[in-house]
Structures are given as structure tokens and as C-alpha cells.
Design brief:
The protein has 18 helices and 22 strands. It is α/β, with parallel strands linked by helices and 654 residues long. The chain has three domains: 299 residues, FAD/NAD(P)-binding domain (3-Layer(bba) Sandwich), CATH 3.50.50.60; 142 residues, FAD/NAD(P)-binding domain, CATH 3.50.50; 171 residues, no CATH class. It has a five-stranded parallel beta sheet, covered by helices on one side. Strands 9-18-10-13-14 form a five-stranded parallel beta sheet. A three-stranded antiparallel beta sheet has the order 5-6-7. Strand 5 and strand 6 form a beta hairpin. The protein is globular. Bound molecules: flavin-adenine dinucleotide. Flavin-adenine dinucleotide binds next to helix 1. It comes from uncultured Arthrobacter sp. InterPro entries: FAD/NAD-bd_sf, HpyO/CreE_NAD-binding, L-asp_N-monooxygenase_NS-form. This is Nitrogen regulatory protein P-II.
């Protein structure tokens, strides 16, 4: 029951998603013409609201974003802004950064101001600086939340959520219990149970006095605990790896400088450990291309578009990924590659490049499966074998290769890194990076189309998430180019070594050490007393260690969504079971519950790619989808408060 003092809602989680919900609540309130009841918004987060956990402003400034300044926003701007009530703080990160660089943001440290000025719109800011932006947006929102609105931050963890009559009871650590009319779960990245293999390594570490570092947010860790000169096994060569790498080298006083040949050289401080790095593919994520936009300017999609993918649903077909979606995106990826090749190296074709491109277009335009033989004919007639692009092979760069020893492997990885750095530096003129750019552009389209049941369950699991996601992540979600050049320098300085593809990690009880080896490398592998999992805890509600999530699951406040695998066996999906937007979690018995909403990572059951920030200027149902979700939740909450019979009674009494 809504009290005479007005309505109260709780936003659990004050990270980017929670901040977007707060911003949308305030925007809707401000846009409404007419009398409104008082509204108290409780933001619950043990971390500073705005940055929350991931974007803490006190983390190492060496931890960079993997999206450029021009990309992220936490509020609707540009095209997205026109579709919803105006933002009271209409700043994306880039416009805030420009303001900060010009001295227009109060309270920044000299270091923060200098970074804002230095990083540029296509550069990669530190996560701490993005956290400053988020904190600034939050502060601006709460400084003027509008008439009748009070925002209270509780620096607490929410421990339990239960229905209590017509309201919700939210228990916080420390014992306080909030009674609220609406609740938004914006929980983001949660701690997760280790998988059985990780559990064995952790137990073994405790027995033998080794250090096992489970998956974690890099900003949480005390890196000083890894001693100089020791070997440290690092599992994972994705984004967290680059945080580990830079913190333990430049972060320990080492210096990178141009070696005079266009490559970087590293001068150690002597305080670095030696990193023994491993991942399934054996090589790190590829670097971002050095370009001035998020999607390369020369890339446009002709086949994998919202219209073509949307046509399946219009025809009553729920598409599969391999059968329906990938063949379209595959065409665009090939087109981007060969068009760029024709532009930068027309002589590389066996026939005149213009004619070759015409032939390619004709092949790609064939609607049915006939496009593949036609493509093969195009390749045979026009492109030397070593310049032909095999997209699937990019997933396994060392497939079929054996290495006599780790020196041979290191040489191969170095070659790969140098080539990747050079390829990034060519920017829009690099055919492979443009092919990857097309794949990244397709990712946004696919994300839009597969949401809310737009893909078959088996297409979702075995195909989209099974092989495409790791492929596109490894190719398009990599670090800034600088990090790859730095990694190559560290390999030359013998401070980073590699285990090889398909690595095996084990605890050796005889010697009391961790072992890592690859079946494809002749050496016996490496041993170490330290093992760092360079990855985030799994985003999976059913294995979450969050006290709140576990309580909600156990008491049936929420439930995970089940999907059907290829063989018809139900599979517990990563996210919660929810309604269509505005997303409302279903209870254990499948019912919606008044006033309860969810946004962000726990929607991994119905959306693909829930973690990435909203893209500035993108439309609300595409790159700025998280803002659309926040807007829909805010609108629904405000409407339910306005329409509440309790408030109308209170109104008529007033
Ligand atoms: C290390 C890292 C780097 C990233 N880099 C990028 C990048 O460069 N570009 C990009 O676009 N995306 C990046 N991402 C993706 C990132 O997930 C999103 O941009 C964003 O942080 C998601 O926002 P969120 O609010 O949903 O989750 P979070 O940022 O995780 O925030 C959730 C908040 O909820 C709080 N919370 C959780 N449970 C409770 C509870 N029970 N009680 C109270 N509070 C609670 C947490 O403390 C946290 O502050 C990165 C993610 C990580 C982890």
C-alpha cells in the first residue's frame, strides 16, 4: 500500500544500469504535466552510486575501457533522446570528456583532467575516468531530482526481497528493512560459484600453500601479492588479461618506448613476475583497429540488416543462427574484406579489381545456398589462395599446428602479435580489420533481432552462443591496439610466455605446484605457485553467490529461464525468466509480481550481449537498448504509482 507520504521505489544496484533507471525515473517525472505524488527513490549499492562496482574511480588508471570515448553513454542522447522524455543530464561520455578537458567539470584531480584532455574521442579512456563520468551524472541527477522527488543512497548490500502485503520488504545488511512499492533489480556482475575444475585448483592451492586467484573484477584485486621474479600462470587472454599484464609491468615501474623500428621495447623495473599466459586458442583477443568511429566508416551491411532478419519473423519463421542469420552476415563480412582489398591492393586480384567485385556481388546476391559455389568460383578466378578469407579459421589461428617447444610457439605468437598490431595500425585500409568491423556491425543488428524470442532455442545455444559469440568476442572485443604492441614488447623481454592452444591446468600433488601444458607443444609445460583466472565470474543466475539472488531463487521470488537444447533437453539459461519489456521477473510459479522489474545482465535469458554499455547516438531498440529497457521500466513504475488506487485516495483526501 502506498503511504500518505507518497511512493517509494528501490533500485538495487547503482552501476550504469541502475543509474540509467534513476535518470529515466527523474526524466519521466519532470516530463509529466500536472500534480504528482511525492516519490522517494532508494538506490542501494555498497559502492559509490554511478560507477558502482565495475567503474570504481579509485581503481588503477592502467585499466582501460575496450570501447573508445565516442562510444558509451548512460543517458539517451542524439537519435535515442528524441524518442523518450528529455534527459535532465544530456551528456554522453564524449561530451562530458570534452567539457572536462576544457576545465568545465568541477572536482576533478589534475590527473583526471589531464587524461580527459589527452585521450581524444577515438582513444580508450581508463575505466576510472568513465567512473568519474558516471559519478558526475549521478551527482547531477540527485542535485536536482525535481519537485517531490527524494533520492537516498544506501551504502549497503541488499540481502533479501520479499512481498509484504501490497508492498516489498527489502532487507539491507546492517539490519535496516525498507518498505517499498516498486523494485528494480540492476545487479550487474555478480560473484559466481567456481566450476568443479576451478574448485579443485582452489582446494589444492589451500592444501599446498599456493595462490589461486578466482575470476574477479580486476579493480578488486591486490596485485602486490604477486611477487617479483616468480612465474604466474594466467588463464584467459581476453580483456582481463591485459589488465593483469599492464598492472604487473608498467604498474610496477617498467617503461615502454619506441624501439626506433616502429615497435615498442620494454625496460623492466625488475619488480615484474613472469607471466605464463594461456587460452583455448593460444593467442590473445585481436586488437581494435585504429579508426575514428565505432563501426568503420567504410563498412556498411547489405545482407545482415534489421529488415532482412526481421523478414523471418514477418513470414512467421523463427530463424536459426547457422541456417538463417550467419549466411547473411557471412556475406557482409566477405564483402567488407574484398572491397577493402580491392581499394588498397587492386593489383592483388588475378583479374581487374572492378570486374572481380562485380562478380563477387553477383555471387553474394544469390539468395539460396547457391551463393557458396558461386563464391568459390569467384575466389578461384580472382583471388590468390593466400589472400582468401576463411572466416571460421579465424577462430583457431593455430589449428593443425604442432610446436616443437615453447620457443617455437613464442615465435609464432610474436609473429601473430606483430601482424595484428600492424593490421590495426592500417585502420580502415586493412581488409581483415574491416571484415571484423562488419562482423561487429552485424553483432548490433543480431542483438536487436534475436531479443525476446527472435531466435530458436537451439540456434541460441549451440550456434549464436556456442561458436559465434567466442569468435566475434575474440575478433571484435579486443583491447586497444597499444596493448597488443605492449604485449609483443613484453614477450621480447621474456616477461610473458605462452602455454599453447587447448591448455590443460592441473595441480601436481607430488611437487605441490600448478602445472599448465598444451597437447600441441613438445615441452612438458610450465609449473608455478600462482594461478590467476583472468576472466569475470560467470554471468549465470543459477550459480550466483549473491546472497540476494540466492534468496530470491530459493524463495521463488524469481526463477531462471529454461530453454530447449537441440536434443529437446531443457537447459537452465544464464538469466532470469521474464515477461516481455518492461521486463518483470516471473516467480517460481510463473507469475508476474506487481512492481518488480529487472534490467541488465540478468536478462541474458532473452537478450544477447547484455553487458556492453549503451552506444551513444544509437537508436533505442539497437545499440542503446539498455536505455530503452530502463525507460520502459521507469515509465511503468511511474504509471503504476500514478494509477495506484491508494494514491488516488490520498489525492482525493488532500
Ligand atoms: C572489468 C570490466 C570492464 C568492462 N569494460 C567495458 C567497456 O570498456 N565498454 C563497455 O561497453 N562495457 C564494458 N564492460 C561491461 C559492463 O558490464 C557494463 O558496461 C556495465 O558495467 C554494466 O552495468 P550494470 O549496472 O548492469 O552492472 P555493474 O556495473 O556490475 O553494476 C551493478 C551494481 O549493482 C551492485 N549490486 C549487485 N548486487 C547488489 C546487492 N545485492 N545489493 C546492492 N547492490 C548490489 C553492485 O555493487 C554494482 O555496483 C566491462 C565490464 C567489466 C566487468
Amino acid at each position: 500500500m502506498i503511504s500518505m507520504e507518497g511512493a517509494e521505489v528501490a533500485v538495487i544496484g547503482g552501476g550504469p544500469r541502475g543509474t540509467s533507471v534513476l535518470e529515466r525515473l527523474i526524466a519521466h517525472r519532470k516530463a509529466f504535466v500536472g500534480p504528482q505524488e511525492p516519490l522517494t527513490i532508494h538506490v542501494v549499492d555498497p559502492f559509490d552510486p554511478g560507477p558502482g562496482h565495475v567503474w570504481r574511480t579509485d581503481q588503477s588508471r592502467l585499466f582501460l575501457m575496450n570501447t573508445p570515448s565516442l562510444f558509451p553513454t548512460v543517458v539517451p542522447v542524439g537519435g535515442a533522446a528524441a524518442e523518450v522524455p528529455a534527459s535532465p543530464v544530456p551528456f554522453d561520455f564524449e561530451s562530458w570528456r570534452t567539457l572536462a578537458a576544457a576545465g568545465g567539470v568541477e572536482g576533478l584531480t589534475p590527473e583526471e583532467r589531464a587524461e580527459a584532455a589527452r585521450v581524444g574521442n577515438a582513444g580508450f579512456p581508463s575505466r576510472a575516468l568513465y567512473g568519474r563520468y558516471l559519478a558526475w551524472v549521478y551527482a547531477a541527477l540527485t542535485a536536482d531530482p525535481g519537485e517531490g522527488v527524494t533520492v537516498i543512497h544506501h551504502r549497503r548490500e541488499a540481502l533479501s526481497l520479499r512481498r509484504a502485503g501490497a508492498r516489498w520488504e527489502l532487507e539491507l545488511d546492517g539490519g535496516e528493512v525498507l518498505g517499498v512499492d516498486g523494485v528494480v533489480l540492476a545487479l550487474g556482475h555478480l560473484p559466481a560459484r567456481l566450476n568443479p575444475e576451478q574448485g579443485v585448483l582452489q582446494d589444492g592451492a589451500a592444501r599446498f600453500g599456493l595462490q589461486y586467484w578466482p575470476p574477479a573484477v580486476p579493480g578488486d584485486l591486490d596485485w602486490k601479492r604477486l611477487p617479483a621474479g616468480k612465474s604466474v600462470l594466467v588463464r584467459g587472454l581476453g580483456l582481463n588479461f591485459f589488465d593483469v599484464m599492464i598492472q604487473l609491468t608498467e604498474g610496477r615501474g617498467g617503461r615502454f618506448a619506441d624501439d626506433g623500428t616502429g615497435r615498442l621495447a620494454y625496460t623492466p623495473s625488475g619488480r615484474e613476475p613472469v607471466l605464463i599466459a594461456a587460452s583455448r586458442r593460444g593467442v590473445p583477443y585481436r586488437a581494435k583497429a585504429a579508426i575514428t568511429s565505432y563501426i568503420p566508416r567504410s563498412v556498411s551491411l547489405s545482407y545482415c540488416t534489421v529488415d532482412t532478419l526481421g523478414a523471418f519473423a514477418e513470414a512467421g519463421i523463427q530463424p536459426g543462427f547457422d541456417h538463417d542469420v550467419w549466411p547473411l552476415l557471412h556475406r557482409d563480412v566477405l564483402a567488407a574484406y574484398y572491397r577493402t582489398l580491392a581499394r588498397v591492393r587492386p593489383d592483388a586480384f588475378l583479374r581487374p579489381a572492378d570486374a572481380a567485385l562485380d562478380e563477387l556481388r553477383t555471387a553474394l546476391d544469390i539468395a539460396g545456398p547457391g551463393w557458396l559455389p558461386a563464391l568459390q568460383e569467384f575466389l578461384d578466378r580472382n583471388v590468390p589462395a593466400k589472400l582468401q578469407l576463411n572466416v571460421e579459421a579465424l577462430a583457431q589461428p593455430f589449428a593443425g599446428r604442432r610446436f616443437a617447444d615453447s620457443a617455437a610457439l613464442t615465435e609464432a605468437v610474436l609473429e601473430y602479435l606483430d601482424e595484428d598490431a600492424a593490421s590495426s595500425a592500417r585502420g580502415e585500409d586493412d581488409p581483415l580489420k574491416m571484415a571484423i568491423g562488419a562482423m561487429n556491425a552485424g553483432r548490433t543488428v543480431i542483438k536487436q533481432v534475436v531479443a525476446d524470442g527472435g531466435l530458436t532455442d537451439s540456434g541460441w545455444y549451440a550456434e549464436l552462443r556456442g561458436w559465434f559469440e567466442p569468435l566475434v568476442e575474440g575478433l571484435a572485443s579486443g583491447p586497444p591496439p597499444l596493448r597488443i604492441a605492449q604485449l609483443a614488447a613484453l614477450v621480447r623481454a621474456d616477461l610473458v610466455r605462452f602455454v599453447g592452444p587447448n591448455p590443460l591446468f592441473a595441480l601436481d600433488p607430488d611437487d605441490g605446484v600448478f602445472r599448465a601444458s598444451s597437447p600441441w607443444v613438445g615441452d612438458p609445460g610450465f609449473t608455478a605457485g600462482y594461478l590467476v583466472e583472468a576472466m569475470m565470474p560467470a554471468n549465470q543466475v543459477s550459480t550466483s553467490l549473491s546472497v540476494l539472488m540466492r534468496q530470491m531463487l530459493e524463495e521463488g521470488v524469481v526463477r531462471p529461464r529454461l530453454r530447449m537444447a537441440e536434443d529437446g533437453v531443457p537447459v537452465v539459461s544464464a538469466g532470469l525468466d521474464v515477461t516481455l519489456p518492461p521486463y518483470r521477473p516471473l516467480s517460481g510459479t510463473g507469475e508476474t509480481q506487481p512492481g518488480l522489474y529487472v534490467c541488465g545482465l540478468q536478462l541474458a535469458s532473452v537478450q544477447w550481449g547484455t553487458a556492453i554499455a549503451a552506444e551513444s547516438g544509437a537508436s533505442l531498440n539497437a545499440g542503446a537498448r539498455t536505455l530503452q529497457d530502463a525507460d520502459a521500466i521507469a515509465e511503468a513504475l511511474i504509471a503504476s504509482i500514478r494509477d495506484s488506487p491508494d494514491l488516488q485516495t490520498a489525492d482525493s483526501r488532500a
